[in-house]
Amino acid sequence: TVTTLSLLGILAALATTWTLSGGHHAGTVCTPAGTRRGISLPQSCSYVVDRYAVLIQVVILLGVAMVVLLGASTVHLSRIPVAEYQFLLLSATTGMVAIAASRDLLMLFVSLEVLALPTCALAGLRRGDRRSVEAAMKYFLVSALSTAVSLYGISLVYGLTGSLQLDRVAAGLARPDLPRP
Predict the structure, then answer these.
(1) Can you tell me the distance from the alpha carbon of 28 to that of 39, in angstroms, rounded to the nearest whole number?
(2) Whose CA, among 65, 82, 107, 108, lies 20 to 30 Å from 54?
(3) Mean pLDDT of the 63-87 span
(4) Residue 17 — very low, low, confident or very high, per pLDDT cuts 50/70/90?
(5) What are phi and psi of 33, to 5 degrees?
(6) Alpha-carbon torsion, ordered 4, 63, 166, 170, to 10 deg
(7) Alpha helices in 20-129 (DSSP H)
């Protein structure tokens, strides 16, 4: 069944994540070390798999496995399409797992969107129920507004610090020549 296949996928993700727990692994899209505006900056990466990220990812995957197991009978009795439910749940899980290792504002934003869009669809998955459709519409509108505000804030942070990597943003905000309110 689809539920069994989803659980097997989660177990495969757990096994893969567990193999990464041995130590610090290089990230993706790394910016080399250098100096900017008189401040020495270390190498910075957008996505870093370290022990803390792995721990959070394992907790997320175990939680989703419990949701799949505990929700199987409810989904079946509610006549919700099981395949769509499992797909949306696993898609949202991808966003959750990516958030744990994000070290860049852009990667964090994309991960949040990968999480938010499937959960919006999950809210409206119960077809024929007006409250479900209303919840999905409200969720979508709030999500669209928060996306716009987040992008505006990220652009302001980038304009102020000249970087999107979180460690470089912190270094940029600690500059002594930064105007203070």
Answers:
(1) 23
(2) 82
(3) 91
(4) confident
(5) -65, 155
(6) 180
(7) 51-77, 82-101, 105-123
